[in-house]
Amino acid sequence: MSGKTLPYGALLLAVQLLAACSSEEQGNRIVQSESGSAQQAATEADREEALVLAFGDSLYAGYGLQPSEAFPRELERALDAAGVPARVHNAGVSGDTSEAGRQRLQFTLDGLPAKPAVALVGLGGNDMLRGLDPARTRANLDAILDEFGRRGIPVILTGMRAAPNMGRDFVADFDSIFPELARKHGAALDPFFLEDVVTNPALMQPDRIHPNAAGVDVIVARVAPIVAERIGKEG
């Protein structure tokens, strides 16, 4: 995080909020993100844009934002503006750990109207906030990337970093997961999804976990060129 760690260390104070969001909203968000509306599925099937899958947790789902402000929708607009026609399917579920994502991955992929040109994977932040063993997070993400590889779907892995007050050993083990798995699976890597956002209160919601609409814009400006490049390689 380039030395900007103090605000991020406060994230651990929001664990109870995160758990509450998960227990109360996860069912509805799964229905919304996994099934989608019939209208969305028909649109994705009929249009010729590249299908991009955004598979992650609340940072993808758009917790605390209007649907039009969520990362997948803003990414879609940025790609279109850059001359890269794409339809970004929001498969983010608030509260998801890497294990929960692993459990729903096949269902998500089987329910898509077409094979994605690229998938973004953003999981692990909830594992860190809950203090789960980084070895479990690594194993789950490894299995998720294996499944994408088996289906021939290229991946962009958007990484997370552990809060420094998790302890030196935990931070070292957790932070190494994303670059090492990206190398192993040949995935593109955005090292830290909240880079230059989580340390700026003006770009974060009051919970200090989720970006606000302005924060999403900063993230999209960094990630969209990575997605466009990968779509170009696959096109």
Compact overview of the structure:
By secondary structure, the protein is an alpha/beta fold. The chain has 11 helices and 5 strands. The model is unreliable at 1-7, 9-35 and 41-47 (pLDDT under 50).
The N- and C-terminal alpha carbons lie at a distance of 34 Å
Going across the major beta sheet, what is the strand order?
Answer: 2-1-3-4-5
Helix content: 40-55%
Average pLDDT level: 86
The CATH homology group name: SGNH hydrolase
CATH architecture: 3-Layer(aba) Sandwich
Query: Which word captures the global form?
Result: globular
Instruction: Give start-end ranges of low-pLDDT stretches.
Output: 1-7, 9-35, 41-47
Question: Total helix count?
Answer: 11
Number of beta-strand segments: 5
Structural class: alpha/beta
Computed over alpha carbons, the radius of gyration is 16 Å
| Percent range for β-strand residues | 5-15%
- Secondary-structure element sequence? HHHEHHEHEHHEHHEH
Could you please say which CATH topology applies here? Rossmann fold
CATH class (first level) name: Alpha Beta
Structurally, the number of domains stands at: 1
Largest sheet: 5 strands, parallel
Tell me what you see in this structure.
This protein has about 240 residues and is α/β, with parallel strands linked by helices. The protein has one domain: 3-Layer(aba) Sandwich (Rossmann fold), CATH 3.40.50.1110. About 50% of the residues lie in helices and about 10% in strands. It has a 5-stranded parallel β-sheet with strand order 2-1-3-4-5, with helices on both faces. Helix 5 crosses helix 11 (about 215-235), helix 6 runs parallel beside helix 8 and helix 8 (about 135-150) runs parallel beside helix 10. The longest helix has 22 residues, at about 215-235. The radius of gyration is 16 Å and the shape is globular. Residues about 1-5, about 10-35 and about 40-45 have low confidence and may be disordered.
